[in-house]
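Entry details:
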Amino acid sequence: MTKLETIAAAAATCTKCDLASTRTQVVFGRISEQSPLMIVGEAPGKDEDEQGEPFVGRSGKLLDQVMLEELGVARDRVSIVNTVMCRPPGNRDPHANEIAACNEWLEAKLDALAPKVVITLGNFATRLLLFGDPAAKQGITKLRGQSYPWRDGAVLVPTFHPAAVLRSGGGPPLAQMRADFIRAKQAIAAAGATL
């Protein structure tokens, strides 16, 4: 078993928080071990909980479209994970204790994959990975639009969550999300990597 297979097998039976009692299954993530890019979202929704894969609903369709059009790749060429692996009931925001309980799994994936560029989708992922605290005060609207030096020479690029873009009806938030993905593509090239 590879390191990631071992992590996934252990995560599949995780009961570190109350979300374990209401999930259909753990949504470990869509992993591409060779990719220099990891995309980190918030939490699985209903479709993700049923299918066991992140971003398969409406938000996923938009994410796939932006990745294809701005990065030139399909989802099988990048790693896509969430801050928590189990669906919060009613698609509510994950609570701080749930994010903290799941952070060990996220950190294990980050360590195993060592991405050159991380795109964070929305407030929760951005605050957790940029500040180490999902309750940090800075919001995604102020944080997006630039790249941040991150761990071990990697770059973090925050952007809007696709669900927020859909709720806004597209327009400027979609254009800004696209610009952030182009920024990530440039960071990948600057790191000497390719998708």
Q: What stands out?
A: The chain has a mean pLDDT of 96. The helical segments are 3-11, 46-51, 58-71, 96-113, 122-131, 140-143, 162-168, 171-190. Strands lie at 37-41, 79-82, 117-121, 148-149, 155-159.
